[in-house]
Amino acid sequence: MPQYEFDVDASIAAGWDRFASHLAELMRDLAPGGTFDIAVPVLGSPSSRTPFVRFTVTEPGTVRVEVSGGQEDGDGLGPTHLVHLGALGWEDPAEDTVGPHVRVRTGEADEAARLVAATLERVFGIPHPVFLHDATGPTRPERATPDASPPEHPDFAALPIGTPDEATRAVGTALAEIYERDVPADEHDVFAVPAGSALLFVRVHRSLPLVIFRSPLVSSVRDVAAAETEVAILNRDSLWCRYVFDGETIYAESELVDRVFVTVNFKIQLIEMATELDDVDEDLARRVSGKRWSDLRAADDRGSPEQ
Predict the structure, then answer these.
(1) pLDDT tier at 144, thresholds 50, 70, 90
(2) pLDDT in tens, 247-294
(3) Mean pLDDT of all residues in 32-45
(4) What does pTM read for this prediction?
(5) Stretch 105-133: mean pLDDT, rounded?
């Protein structure tokens, strides 16, 4: 990976590879009669009515994987969803299923896990596995109590940083506190986190004492003039990041000096940037005739399946 750039596509691919590997392990460990679901988050819909993928051991050594639209009657998948699912290799509903399904031996768990990953990304438009977690955005850190002065609160402690690896560990610890779960880095030490509907990458620079934040906010921009105007306006008004347009994609970027790492400074920077991105991405995509990252690969009933 170049030291001065994020390889966004590589980071996303690595995230899905890790997801598929872990999912295959879960499938192999599933006991006879056991079952588990992966919910597909849909903004504005209650969790009980959103699509999901269900894994069930129907007989020893065999796992049935089924896609459901999440509706009580088993419906909820549109015609284009069904066409895309069929193109990926899902079979039509059977007598004992209400949605498209496949049956695989546990020895084929790796292949089935890759199918599920492709389905979540291409059919349901999940931009990265981090969006499958319950936490869809950062939680603001608790304020220090009046009895504890800022220097005594751990978030205000100054942590000297001597190497990029030390900084990466500090970032990972802070992200775990913000999102209230483990946030692993990929092999390039890039962290991927949700910022509302946007995808935000965080990494430590390998040569400079910087933590770098970058988000591919809007892509497939068709109105270049509008994009240049909107980026200028955003850069005039933003307090937390700068916006860059490369002719196709609008990115949001920011840096934080980490020679001495203060957790509260990192948390404030990330949370404020994430809040801003979640506020602007939908309207920005509309104004520049582009697509948010989460909309790029989702199948819907307005388009035709990819050939």
Answers:
(1) very low
(2) 999 999 999 988 889 999 999 999 999 999 999 999 999 999 998 866
(3) 78
(4) 0.74
(5) 89
Residue 61 has which token pair?
Answer: 């050594």
DSSP letters, the chain, are: --TT---HHHHHHHHHHHHHHHHHHHHHHPPTT-EEEEE---TTS-GGGS-EEEEEEEETTEEEEEEE---TTS----HHHHHHHHHHTPBPP-TT-SS-EEEEEGGGHHHHHHHHHHIIIIIS---SGGGGSS--SPPPPPPPPTTS-GGGSGGG-EEE--SHHHHHHHHHHHHHHHHTS-----TTSEEEEEETTEEEEEEE-SSSSEEEEEEEEEES---HHHHHHHHHHHHHH-SS-EEEE-SS-EEEEEEEE-SEEEHHHHHHHHHHHHHHHHHHHHHHHHHTT-EEGGGSS---TTS----
Q: In the predicted model, is pLDDT for residue 26 greater than 50?
A: yes
* CA separation for the pair 117, 16 (Å, rounded): 6
Question: Do 66 and 30 touch, CB atoms closer than 8 A?
Answer: no
CATH architecture of the region 155-300: 2-Layer Sandwich (3.30)
- Between residues 194 and 49, the one the model is more confident about: 194
* pLDDT the model gives residue 229: 97
* 100 alpha-carbon distance from chain centroid: 25
Encoded tokens for 8? 């966004």
Ordered by start, the domain boundaries in the chain are: 8-131, 155-300
- Angstrom distance (rounded) from CA 112 to CA 214: 32
Handedness of CA 272, 274, 275, 277 (dihedral sign): positive
pLDDT at 152: 64
